[in-house]
Design brief:
Keywords: Carbohydrate metabolism, Hydrolase, Magnesium, Metal-binding. GO terms for molecular function: fructose 1,6-bisphosphate 1-phosphatase activity; metal ion binding. It is an enzyme of class 3 (hydrolase). By secondary structure, the protein is an alpha+beta fold. The chain has eight helices and 13 strands. An eight-stranded mixed β-sheet has the order 2-1-3-4-5-6-7-8, sandwiched between helices. A five-stranded mixed β-sheet has the order 10-9-11-13-12, with helices on both faces. Helix 1 packs antiparallel against helix 2. The model has no long low-confidence stretch (mean pLDDT about 90). It binds 2,5-anhydro-1,6-di-O-phosphono-D-mannitol and magnesium ion. The site of magnesium ion has 4 residues, from strand 3. Magnesium ion binds next to strand 3.
């Protein structure tokens, strides 16, 4: 109901996770996800606080010490580095993680704490951080895989080859998006929102600063089947393939199937662009182009979690030619073209590619 805010016992994220696992005792992973989500939500609150106070605490700008560069060759901002530490530690201490793979780390990190568990978390701790210094929206993106029982990830210093054990753990990260047991994002904007799926629908929680809790404000989110907004970095238009060029032209002049003339919105912050697309409908894309054949966004911790959310909300997510959730990763930081949004909008583009 819309009265959740004033409820004397609001549906917090923690309560939601407990009730969901109590009501679905047959569903695997939900009990473990309680612990994992309690770690993630604390990290998100901490990152939200860091982001909102960055201008005051001198946390804007680049990481000091000779300009750190991550594995993507991107300069790391102070807040990228800090957010990564915050999330990594929260996950580690959840006791459920075997492997964690972050945009900000060259290699997945094997959790060798005594209490390490058998889940894999892939994440981008602070996506869209180029926006940070202008106080524009940013977000955290995460996905959770269960480890493959056939190749359990166990680190035991006393037994055998440590490198071989770690290599077995790293393989656990290479799973297609359809294996995700949960995915979500937290957006740091005019309000802080955490949007989550555990494989049965999508729910949105808003951080209530008065009680410091994420409260269910957007139950069972569904994306409209058609929208009127397209969201691409149009500066790349000259490098797009002709099919995409024609499709976007048809959104501008109304010659698309819906007959409507679309509006353009592009924040340049994936979480915010996806969040708006989820709520208002339409189509978002970061396609491959002549210069970057696989686009910009990373399969494991950007494309796959967003695609799971969109599909769970009744939308579609594709590379243009293939369902994103079916793509088998071959490298941790691999990029993939991503087009997602309302079912009819995305299908129209997929049909055009098929008719090529
Ligand atoms: P980042 O991970 O370095 O922050 O880059 C990812 C961001 C996404 O949030 C956004 O969708 C995209 O880069 C925007 O790229 P561009 O500036 O090329 O439009
Ligand atoms: Mg990113």
């Amino acid at each position: 109901s819309t009265a959740v805010h004033s409820d004397v016992s609001p549906m917090t994220l923690t309560r939601y996770m407990i009730e969901e696992s109590n009501q679905n005792l047959d569903k695997e992973h939900l009990v473990d996800l309680q612990g994992i989500m309690s770690g993630i939500q604390v990290a998100c609150k901490k990152i939200s606080s860091l982001v909102s106070r960055a201008g005051i605490t001198n946390l804007t700008g680049l990481e000091e010490g000779g300009g750190s560069v991550n594995i993507q060759g991107e300069e790391q901002k102070k807040l990228d580095v800090l957010s990564n530490e915050v999330l990594k530690n929260s996950l580690r201490f959840s006791g459920k993680m075997g492997v964690i793979a972050s945009e900000e780390e060259d290699e997945p990190v094997v959790v060798d704490e005594v209490a390490s568990g058998n889940y894999v978390c892939v994440f981008d701790p602070l996506d869209g951080s180029s926006n940070i210094d202008a106080a524009v929206a940013t977000g955290t993106i995460f996905g959770i895989f269960a480890e493959d029982d056939e190749q359990p990830c166990l680190i035991n210093d006393d037994e055998g080859d440590l490198d071989a054990q770690k290599a077995a753990c790293l393989i656990q990260t290479m799973q297609p998006g359809k294996n995700l047991v949960a995915a979500g994002y937290c957006m740091y904007s005019s309000s802080c929102m955490l949007v989550l799926t555990t494989g049965h629908g999508v729910n949105g929680f808003t951080l209530d600063p008065q009680i410091g809790e994420f409260v269910l404000t957007h139950p069972n989110m569904q994306i409209p089947s058609r929208g009127k907004i397209y969201s691409f970095n149009e500066a790349n238009y000259p490098d797009w393939d002709p099919t995409l060029q024609k499709f976007v032209d048809s959104l501008k002049d109304g010659s698309n199937k819906s007959g409507a003339k679309y509006s353009s919105r592009y924040i340049g912050s994936l979480v915010a662009d996806v969040h708006r697309t989820l709520l208002y409908g339409g189509i978002f894309g970061y396609p491959g182009d002549a210069k970057n054949t696989n686009g910009k966004l990373r399969l494991l911790y950007e494309c796959a979690p967003m695609s799971m959310l969109l599909e769970e909300a009744g939308g579609l997510a594709t590379t243009g030619r293939e369902r994103v959730l079916d793509v088998m990763p071959t490298a941790v930081h691999q990029r993939l073209p991503l087009i997602l949004g309302s079912k009819e909008d995305v299908q129209e583009l997929v049909d055009l590619y098929q008719a090529e």
